[in-house]
Amino acid sequence: MTSLTPFAAIILGIVLAGWLAAAIWALSSGQRMRREGMQAQGKLDRLTSLLASAPAAPVIIHADGRLEAADRLAKWLGKDRVPSFVSELTAPDGGLTQADAAALAQEIAATQRAGRSFALPVRGEGSSRLLLVRGAPAGPVLAESGGVVLWIFDATDSQSEIQTLKARVEQLRDALEALAGLVEAAPFPMWHRTPDMRLSLVNAAYVRAVDGDGAGEVIANGTELVETVATLTPQAAAEQALSESRPVERIVPATIDGERRTMRVVDVPLGEAGVAGFAVDQHELEQAKVEYRRLEAAQRDLLDRLSAGVARFGSDRTLRFWNQPFMSLFGLDQDHLADQPVFERVLDRMRETRRLPEHRDFPAWRAERRDWFLSPDPLEENWLLADGTHLRVYAQPLPDGGLLLIFEDRTEQVQLSSARDTLLRVRTATFDNLFEAIGVFSSDGRLQLWNSRFRSIWDISDELLAKHPRIDELMRAVQSRLAKPQQANLVRELVRAATVERKQRVGHVGFADGRTFEFAAIPLPDGNALFTMLDVTDSRRVEQVLRDRNDALEQADKVKTAFVTNMSYELRTPLTTIAGFAEMMSAGYAGELGDSARDYVDGILQSTNRLAMLIDNVLDLTQGEAGMLSIELSPVDLAELARESMTRVKGDAASKGIDLALSLQGSLGTVRGDRRRIGQALDHLLENAVCYSGKGARVLLHGDGSPENARLVVSDNGPGISAKRQATIFDAAARAAQARSGEKAGIGLPLAKQFAQAHGGSLQLVSEPGQGTMAIIELPRG
Which region is the signal sequence (predicted)? Predict the structure, then answer.
């Protein structure tokens, strides 16, 4: 083994030392670079995390079309991966709408050529996501020349918020414009003051109120609406509202359109925006208040003058007003009412005076009446007091929570109603038992009322009558019962004339069974029509017989008339002489008479008076048959005349126990005729009825009328007159035969008939054996 020389060892040591130094330097440099690399890696990681958390995704487009982008871009575009080339991004299926893809390609190309920046909103295909693309040329660090860097933001939420804010701004703008239009169109003055109390806004009403030429001119001149009151200027009032942060209201005078008006001015603080104000014309309101007070006073005066009792309670249920009838009706004391007692206490006092209905549980009844204050609607009830007084109670809740009570004494009305019901029942019974068949038709032609005679004559079923048929329907149902069915049209037309034209019509109709009826349709004052039917079958038969005999008797009647007339006058002379001497003897001219002689003379006078009356009747009858009966025309009150006739026969009726009844309608009225002759006719009819009716019978004198005629009816429920007797009762020859045979041949009915005919009227006799007799006199008004 060779050993190194000292020189070589030195050289080797030097080399080893250098190598060691180099190793130490390399190791130190590596540690330093490692530390710098770790710092750079940490910075890179932080920047990467920052980019990943940034709201925008960076995209680098190289000049050759290569594309580098964050992974989230694929999610935004709805793709599985990030596009590798810009052509994939701008392709029709690149994830963007076709129009947005084309626009983005055009903007990228322009940036590559001109080096300008751009911003473009784009949307994903079939997505609601909105992306905002901001592009700029890429620096040399990011890409070579011609590169583009894109920042893509997801602006969906921000865009939605922007749209919401835009809509809100539009709403606020519309609201502001509407508010401004409302302020401008307001019918009362409105204004705004800046914080320094200068006018900055006035509406058209303000301009009109101050007679300004325009809002600008009013603001420029600072024209105030109201005047300074008690050193308080409009500006001072506005400053007070602003300093106190509350609205300030005051009533001040103002001159509007040349008139002094009372205005209610309100200043409303708006904070830093100043003060707003408005003025409302109170003039009409003040006048209304005065008018209300005047009206209330007039109402109280009116209520105090009512005959009904009135009491008004306030919202606290205390008595506020009452009138004198209220106190009198319930026997209350003035001093007690003046203390304004509560509602319950007033009821208690009424009960103490026994002016309330009797109730077993009075507290409960009183509690129910207390609920009247809370009722939404007016209430009404009837009270029957212990003394028989009927009260109608009307409770009206008032808007202010009070209660108005009205007490109407209806005792007299209730009594009158009861009497009326009784009269209606009597009338109904009378109506149903009349010999005539009667039906009442309403103005629309419906059958409203009928009696049993009407139903039996027409043989109408109760079912049909219950429907209240019209006259057309009724006639269709019964026309088969007529001898000539077409006569149903006549009946229908008569009812129509009475209901529509208000004209009275009469006629006759034959039935298939041989009966003949006379009927009349008479308008009634209430708009209805009365339809009456009388069975004149026997009269028609007798009429034919009489017509046949009339020709034969006419000539003999003329001879008889002349003879009776002469004889009547001849008989008057000795009768007058006898009566004269008898009166002289009764007066004592022939000396004082004894009692027996005086009775004889009185008998002579009575007989002569009776004979004179008979002669007058015979003469009147003869003159009537000859057509020479004298009539003196003047207005005649038939009602008064009927009462006088009833008075004259009252004594004879009372002696026989006969009930006299008088029924006169207001339609009876007056006629133009001879009062004495009409009175004689009534006397004869009543005397006949009293004479031929048995003991306890009933005689009725009824009167009514129409605009053209008046009718007087004397009826009784006596034995009646046979058809044979009726046929001869007005026949002079028959009367003569009766007189020769010793029968009683009265001339009362013929005379009554002649008196009626002399006035242009008629007398009709209706009678059946066992059903009484009815004599009807009809007289024309003229």
Answer: none
